[in-house]
């Protein structure tokens, strides 16, 4: 039996990587899905593939107006909203503090926190009224960097620790109204991109892994038998969105994946 029959979920950053895998899995489980996606090209691809099962809004998670528009479009298409997943994120490719030139440090901070933290706060604010009506839930994508050093550089790790605090605070504020939880994946082969301030916006994690010799070489380098894929993590989101977790709030499912130092850029 489908675990998410009649569920309506809004996912940010759904055009590729983990977000794209979440859309496919939630649809398989019976949900209907709204998406907030920055790329017009990826939005068009989602609509072409999934048709009326998705309602895609092209916009920026750092924009209050775009978050509100994605909630409105999702409800207009499917009648209500049960789950908000704050998933959009960017990475700093493990850039250390002493590798950040002072003249670009502020821009890098603003770019990363605008997506990783501000985007989640704005999505939560835009969706809270609808989620109260449905007694629904919020789920945020964290990282093993929310618990451990080495999952990225100081900017990324700080942003994911901030989300742990956000989950705790919102679970307290919305207790007995809306459940608030998180999933903390480890490294995975995905399209997670970097920062323009660090000249990393043309890179993604999958390309780096391939540049280091591919999945097998990277896994061997960090002492693991394989590199997890995005599909290895989506089950935790399904569980948290379903009624099987109706007593769970303020929790983070820490799915380690790969620990150890982040992969370095080729060359």
Characterise this structure.
The protein is an alpha/beta fold and 267 residues long. The protein is built from eight helices and seven strands; from the N terminus they run βαβαβαβαβαβαααβ. A seven-stranded parallel beta sheet has the order 3-2-1-4-5-6-7, sandwiched between helices. Helix 1 packs across helix 8. The radius of gyration is 18 Å and the shape is globular. The termini are far apart.
| End-to-end C-alpha gap | 49 Å
Helix content: 40-55%
Question: By helix and strand content, what is the structural category?
Answer: alpha/beta
Largest sheet: 7 strands, parallel
Shape: globular
Strand numbers in spatial order across the main sheet: 3-2-1-4-5-6-7
Order of SSEs, N→C? EHEHEHEHEHEHHHE
Tell me the fraction of residues in β-strands, as a range. Answer: 5-15%
> Mean pLDDT, nearest integer?
88
In the predicted model, the low-confidence regions spanning at least 5 consecutive residues are 258-263
Estimated radius of gyration: 18 Å
Provide a brief overview of the structure.
It contains eight helices and seven strands.
Topology, pairings included?
Blueprint: E1 8-12, H1 17-28, E2 32-37, H2 40-50, E3 54-58, H3 64-78, E4 83-86, H4 102-134, E5 137-141, H5 154-173, E6 179-185, H6 205-211, H7 214-221, H8 234-241, E7 252-255
Helix pairs in contact: 1-8, 3-4, 4-5, 6-7
Record keyword descriptors for this entry.
about 270 residues, 7-stranded parallel beta sheet, 8 helices
């Amino acid at each position: 039996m489908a675990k998410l029959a009649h569920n309506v979920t809004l996912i940010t950053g759904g055009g590729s990587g983990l977000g794209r895998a979440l859309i496919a899995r939630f649809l398989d489980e019976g949900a209907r899905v709204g998406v907030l996606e920055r790329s017009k090209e990826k939005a068009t691809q989602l609509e072409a593939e999934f048709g009326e099962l998705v309602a895609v809004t092209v916009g920026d998670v750092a924009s209050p107006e775009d978050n509100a528009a994605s909630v409105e479009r999702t409800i207009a298409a499917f009648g209500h909203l049960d789950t908000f997943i704050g998933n959009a994120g960017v990475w700093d490719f493990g850039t250390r503090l002493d590798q950040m030139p002072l003249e670009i440090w502020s821009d890098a901070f603003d770019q990363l926190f605008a997506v990783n933290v501000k985007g989640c706060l704005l999505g939560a604010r835009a969706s809270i009224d609808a989620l109260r009506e449905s007694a629904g839930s919020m789920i945020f994508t964290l990282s093993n960097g929310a618990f451990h050093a080495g999952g990225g550089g100081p900017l990324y790790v700080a942003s994911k620790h901030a989300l742990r605090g956000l989950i705790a605070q919102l679970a307290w504020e919305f207790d007995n109204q809306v459940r608030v939880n998180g999933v903390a994946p480890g490294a995975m082969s995905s399209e997670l991109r970097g920062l323009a301030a660090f000249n990393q916006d043309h890179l993604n994690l999958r390309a780096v892994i391939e540049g280091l010799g591919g999945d097998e070489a990277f896994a061997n380098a960090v002492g693991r038998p394989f590199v997890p894929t995005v599909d290895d993590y989506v089950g935790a989101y399904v569980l948290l969105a379903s009624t099987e977790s109706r007593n769970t709030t303020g929790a983070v499912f820490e799915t380690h994946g790969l620990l150890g130092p982040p992969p370095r850029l080729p060359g």
